[in-house]
Amino acid sequence: MWHFSAMFKLIFYGVSWNEVAVEVLKRNKKEEILQKTL
Prior knowledge:
The chain is an all-alpha fold. 95% of the residues lie in helices and 0% in strands. It has 1 helix and no strands.
């Protein structure tokens, strides 16, 4: 049971971390586009 909960936590944190990374990448892309247009 401990292994299952540990794996679940790892997967949960991995997914949330991926979402955060994607948001950061999107923001960086938007800033790059804004800088190019200015």
